[in-house]
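Severity: low
Component: inverse-folding endpoint
Summary: output formatting inconsistent between runs
Steps to reproduce: submit the following structure tokens with default settings.
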């Protein structure tokens, strides 16, 4: 394994890119704020980044995944699936089973898509006024409970008033009877 593909080189490459980007950002900040050394920081940072990008262009891209070690047939252009096991044995691929599994996965993906659509619709609902509406409903129920308590008190007061009117009516009947007796006695005296 060469130094270019080593873990240390990848670390050094990322470190240099980060330092160059940091110098550019500091230079830009200094330039925006019109502070001294802004041009120098920008120049050093841009030259560092230019050198790093030139070097990265020369060395070529990294090969991050080494699938050919697991599946040797991948390295051969035009390689077919029959040789992928590496031991020369043919692979038996059950296409019917694979299609069934793919259909099941497709169905699950459709269900997930519908669920995501429902969640998106729920996200778009405006709940900004619901807190105030809940407070108003709470106030309404409080006032309704007070009104019902007042109605119960009024019903009790009405029952007591009715009883008192009945007692007053009896007393008036008795008074009328006494008054009638007094009038009749006065009529007997005056004769």
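Observed output (run 2 of 3):
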């Amino acid at each position: 394994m060469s130094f270019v593909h080593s873990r240390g080189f990848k670390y050094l490459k990322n470190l240099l890119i980060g330092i160059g980007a940091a110098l550019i950002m500091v230079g830009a900040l200094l330039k925006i704020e019109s502070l001294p050394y802004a041009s120098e920081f920008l120049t050093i940072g841009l030259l560092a980044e230019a050198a790093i990008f030139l070097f990265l262009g020369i060395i070529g891209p990294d090969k991050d995944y080494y699938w050919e070690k697991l599946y040797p047939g991948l390295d051969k252009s035009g390689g077919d699936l029959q040789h992928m096991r590496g031991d020369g044995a043919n692979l038996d691929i059950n296409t019917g089973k694979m299609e069934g599994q793919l259909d099941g996965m497709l169905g699950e993906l459709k269900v997930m898509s519908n669920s995501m659509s429902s969640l998106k619709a729920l996200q778009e609902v405006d709940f900004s006024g619901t807190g105030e509406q809940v407070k108003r409903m709470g106030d309404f129920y409080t006032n309704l409970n007070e009104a019902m308590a007042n109605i119960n008190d009024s019903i009790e007061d009405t029952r007591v008033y009715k009883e008192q009117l009945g007692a007053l009516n009896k007393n008036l009947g008795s008074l009328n009877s006494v008054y009638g007796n007094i009038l009749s006695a006065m009529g007997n005296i005056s004769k």
